[in-house]
Design a protein that fits this description.
Layout (H helix, E strand, L loop, with lengths): L4 E7 L7 H12 L4 E6 L19 H12 L2 E6 L8 H8 L12 E7 L3 H13 L9 E5 L14 H18 L10
Parallel strand pairs: 1-2, 1-3, 3-4, 4-5
Length: about 190
């Protein structure tokens, strides 16, 4: 493929070696033939959302975060579920995007990988729909019991999960490529 697409991957966990980060690293290897994937694992460095700061004096961390989203051809979010919802740090990051259109019609791949994850997955989809992101049932994935399905070397150890992730990645990259599917995963 001539044009390598840029994917901005947001890890919703603040844990340094979370299963979500390992899953994103696995996906990074899968798409290395067709995409540049930038992993954002600094969600805990963003200041708390405050509408009074959402102006010309925008905090530098938020400006950089928004610039990454704007420059990306697609957004990948991989998050755990905390107390039947999104982690507060991820919700905070997404709240900083509400007053913008940077996610409008932006292809999005949404993964919730947690012990259960159902409620957070529904919440993530609702928020991303509200922000105008483009996704469908094929570019969303719920993985329950992720800790037992991926190892410390970023290898998926559960065959069914591996197939689901590869199908998800194919659908998401096809969306990022405007429907073109002439690519092979690494």
């Amino acid at each position: 493929m001539k044009n390598r697409r840029n994917i901005f991957a947001i890890v919703g966990s603040t844990r340094s070696d979370s299963a979500n980060l390992r899953l994103v690293r696995y996906i990074e290897r899968l798409v290395s033939n067709v995409c540049e994937l930038t992993i954002y694992n600094e969600i805990d460095t963003l200041p708390h959302f405050n509408p009074d700061l959402d102006n010309d004096a925008l905090p530098i961390e938020i400006s950089k975060f928004r610039n990454h989203i704007s420059a990306a051809d697609g957004i990948l979010i991989c998050t755990p579920e905390y107390v039947f919802s999104l982690p507060g740090s991820l919700k905070n990051a997404l709240e900083w995007c509400v007053s913008t259109t940077i996610l409008s019609e932006k292809p999005a791949g949404l993964i919730t990988a947690s012990a259960n994850g159902k409620m957070a997955h529904e919440s993530l989809q609702l928020i991303m729909e509200t922000l105008g992101a483009e996704f469908n049932s094929e570019s969303t994935l719920l993985i329950s019991g992720i800790s037992g399905k991926i190892d410390s070397n970023h290898i998926i150890t559960d065959e069914k999960t591996e197939i689901q992730v590869k199908n998800f990645v194919q659908a998401f990259i096809r969306m990022v490529n405007n429907g073109r599917s002439e690519f092979n995963l690494a």
